[in-house]
Design goal:
Order of helices and strands: HHHEEHHHEHEEHEHH
Number of helices: 10
Radius of gyration: 20 Å
Distance between the termini: 34 Å
Number of strands: 6
Oligomer: single chain
């Protein structure tokens, strides 16, 4: 299975073959093209767990252990351990030094914006999405799995505009293709850990139910109580929202 590691769009900016010996400031670690791929994976996420990095990092017979290389990048001050509120290790993220080594200004801006997130819920949300992806990609029926940053880019190109409050389309947390006996289905995944306002859910459900970007929406919630609350809101939107009620799609039935 081919994985999208977030590095492909920036490969043209990677060091050339004769520049693979580029050293970090201080000269303690020599970064390879594969290392830059790893930095791109981390830059496209607020953080990554070691198992997620090993899953997405392209295999290379020169490196028999992902964790050995990961520890070297940490000791060099390029990556750092992200500790949660309870003192547990959530994963790893780029340091300021690591961000400065990124060869793309787009990646640098994205990594800097990710560092501004300090809410534990945001980290929990991303960590669970990574774990969910690992579970789904173990299935031979699942392919073309895209995380949110890739979905956002694809939908912006498709609609010719970025997602905003008034643009009329919703970017799900993940998007993938599911093989069925009849035809492949485009599946959107939404992870909800905390309840939001009913008016916000009403708008989100309207956009999800009337979207032509996917065929099915899967919701993963923090509790059965939350699931019941969302089911009731979806029921109300389906029955009472005029746009959804008149939309010619099986998703609103």
């Amino acid at each position: 299975m081919t994985h999208d590691n977030g590095a492909k769009p920036f490969r043209e900016n990677w060091p050339h073959k004769d520049a693979l010996g580029r050293s970090t400031p201080g000269g303690k670690v020599v970064l390879t093209r594969r290392d830059f791929d790893a930095l791109a994976i981390v830059a496209n996420n607020r953080f990554v767990e070691a198992k997620q990095l090993a899953h997405l990092w392209p295999s290379d017979p020169k490196y028999h252990n992902h964790y050995i290389r990961l520890r070297k990048l940490i000791r060099a001050g390029i990556l750092e351990t992200l500790i949660g509120d309870a003192g547990n290790r959530l994963g790893y993220r780029l340091t300021q030094k690591g961000i400065s080594l990124l060869p793309s200004e787009i990646l640098k801006a994205k990594a800097l914006s990710h560092r501004s997130f300090s809410y534990r819920t945001s980290f929990d949300h991303d960590r669970l999405l990574q774990e969910i992806r690992l579970v789904f990609e173990q299935s031979p029926l699942v392919s073309r799995y895209m995380p949110e940053h890739e979905v956002k880019r694809v939908l912006a190109e498709r609609h010719g505009k970025k997602e905003r409050k008034d643009v009329g389309y919703k970017v799900p947390d993940s998007l993938f293709e599911l093989k069925t006996t009849h035809k492949p289905l485009r599946v959107a995944l939404e992870l909800e850990l905390t309840m939001k306002s009913e008016s916000r859910y009403w708008k989100n459900f309207r956009e999800l139910l009337t979207s032509s970007d996917f065929d099915v929406v899967i919701f993963v919630t923090a509790s059965e109580k939350m699931s019941e609350a969302l089911r009731q809101i979806i029921k109300d939107v389906t029955a009472n929202d005029r746009v959804v009620r008149d939309w010619p799609s099986p998703k609103n039935r």
